[in-house]
Structure formats: C-alpha cells, structure tokens
C-alpha cells in the first residue's frame, strides 16, 4: 500500500497498481489509475535531463520533481493551474473540479457506480450516489434511450 506522501512525491513504479492508504482523517484507500506510457516518458525525460546536467544532477527516487530536482510539493499543481487560469483569463475552479468532472463523465458514459466509487475512495457506493445523482439520472436516461432505439430497430 502506498502512503499519500509516497504518491504525492512520485514514488510510483510502472506496472504496479498503487493504492493510496487513507490518513487518520480520511480512512478510505484509493486505487490510483495512471498511464504507464506517460510514466515511462516522464522517467525517460528525467534521465535525459540528468545526462544534460551531468554532475549538477541530484539523483532522486521521485517521479514528480521541480527544476531543482527537489520533490514536488502537493501545492505546485494547484498553483500552476491557478496561474495558468489567470494568465489565460479562464475562471479558476481548483483542482478538485477535475475529480467531479471525471466522476460525472465516467458515470454518464457507462462506468458502473461501484467502480467510480472505489476510484474516488468513497467509503460506500451510497456516498457516490448522493453526490453524483445527476450523473446517474443522465446515465439511466441514456440507457433507456439506447434500449428504445434497439427495440425500434427490431420492431417489424
């Protein structure tokens, strides 16, 4: 089981499915989905940078590092996104909005709620259902329309 610190600081091994252990405040364990190609590409880029830097490079077992080869802190992506939104004139909604978007779109596009619930780290499926009721309604409507279409196609 991977600790939140190990995940944030990038100690992730390709082909290993990390499960983030919950903290004392949030006891849910989370399955982390990641893209091994992106992970491998990032590690290759770090190797290339290490070769360019020569003796100045500081070896680290971390995947997510800053320009000084120090572990990336959890607030860096938040700050980057906030600065990007300000620079581009886009309303800043925070990183958490991506979580809701992925969950909503997963349900609407056919992922079963129990899987989405596990990926989100919810302690029960009912938590997910309470939060994403709108998405479940949309998914049910989509399924009903699909079935209606199939019936119409097969109706002589």
Overview features:
mainly alpha; 3% strand
Notes on the protein architecture:
By secondary structure, this protein is mostly helical. It has helices spanning 4-8, 36-53, 75-88, 96-108, 113-120, 125-131, 133-154, and strands at 19-20, 30-31. It has a two-stranded antiparallel sheet. Mean pLDDT is 75; it is low at 1-15 and 19-25.
Which term fits the overall shape? elongated
Helix content: 55-70%
- Please tally the helical runs, counting DSSP H or I stretches of 4 or more residues: 7
Distance between the termini: 56 Å
- Order of SSEs, N→C? HEEHHHHHH
Q: Beta-strand level of the residues, as a percent range?
A: under 5%
Strand order of the largest sheet: 1-2
Q: What does the radius of gyration come to?
A: 21 Å
Total strands: 2
What characterizes the major β-sheet? 2 strands, antiparallel
Low-confidence stretches: 1-15, 19-25
Structural class by sheet pairing and helices: mainly alpha
Give the rounded overall mean pLDDT. 75
């Amino acid at each position: 089981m991977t600790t939140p610190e190990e995940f944030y600081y990038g100690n992730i091994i390709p082909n290993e499915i990390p499960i983030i252990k919950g903290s004392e405040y949030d006891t849910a364990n989370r399955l982390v989905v990641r893209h091994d190609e992106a992970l491998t590409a990032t590690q290759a880029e770090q190797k290339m940078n290490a070769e360019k830097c020569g003796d100045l490079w500081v070896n680290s077992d971390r995947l997510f590092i800053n320009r000084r080869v120090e572990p990336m802190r959890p607030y860096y992506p938040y700050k980057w996104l906030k600065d990007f939104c300000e620079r581009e004139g886009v309303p800043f909604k925070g990183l958490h909005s991506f979580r809701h978007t992925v969950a909503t779109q997963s349900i609407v596009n056919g992922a079963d709620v129990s899987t989405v619930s596990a990926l989100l780290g919810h302690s029960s499926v009912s938590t997910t259902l309470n939060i994403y009721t709108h998405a479940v309604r949309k998914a049910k409507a989509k399924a009903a329309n699909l079935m209606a279409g199939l019936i119409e196609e097969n109706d002589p």
